[in-house]
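Run log, item B.
One chain of 259 residues. Sequence copied directly from the ordering sheet:
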Amino acid sequence: MINCDPDNNYESMQPMKETNIANAVSLIQNANVITVLTGAGISAESGIQTFRDTPDSLWNRFDPEILSSLNGFAGDPQLVWDWYVDRRTDMLAAQPNNAHIGLAEIAKKKDMVIFTQNIDDLHERAGSPNVTHFHGDIKTARCFAKCGWKGKFEDTVPGIMPGCPCCASIARPNVVWFGEMIDPLNMISANARLQNTDLHIIIGTSGVVEPFASLVHNNARGGSTILSINKRPDDHLWYADYSLTGSAGWILDEIAKRV
């Protein structure tokens, strides 16, 4: 591995340890501050298709550069809106699975917040009180002309395409598209939280999308512990201290029963 960071001695790092439910429970019980970062894998068990890795994934069925980019929306806003309305319908029909519910149960007993890459609201519907959406929210929209309006999808002006209720422009989905910046306030909030976290739990993400992917890595150098929960061994973060491989729903249900 090429070391591009002189302050980080990768060769001296210990290999990640595959742990068990009992050890994961102990990590959570002994942590004062817990931060959870979740990706598409946690919602896949609720039937929400991911963009990656499966034969019928959205990556293979659609061109993301058209349906998830500013240029694509400017070129064919009707196509993009039709796709997002379908996605919104599917996401609202999905139900929280045991992973979402397990996290909500743990949050009742521990100081825990969730930062998610997902644009669905399954964490909130499961009962988690502190959730930040890094890539936006499928239930909301904002003005395409940047007049400043942002609100519920239901508040857009009905028409061939949803319109901004504050000006004559069309509205756009309130999600972060390819090439767009994540809300800097979310980054500030996440960095502040992660710097004071005892235990990071990373669920359902292989950590390849930046800047979300670097958050834990850059903030965990002070000695905090990282637990990775993923369905496939290859998706575990290389810098995690512990890993649990398998269904996030089953794993978090078992953990929540014992915390």
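Observations after the first pass:
- Residues 16-46+96-135+181-259 form a domain with the Rossmann fold fold (CATH 3.40.50.1220).
- The chain has a mean pLDDT of 86.
Flagged for discussion on Thursday.
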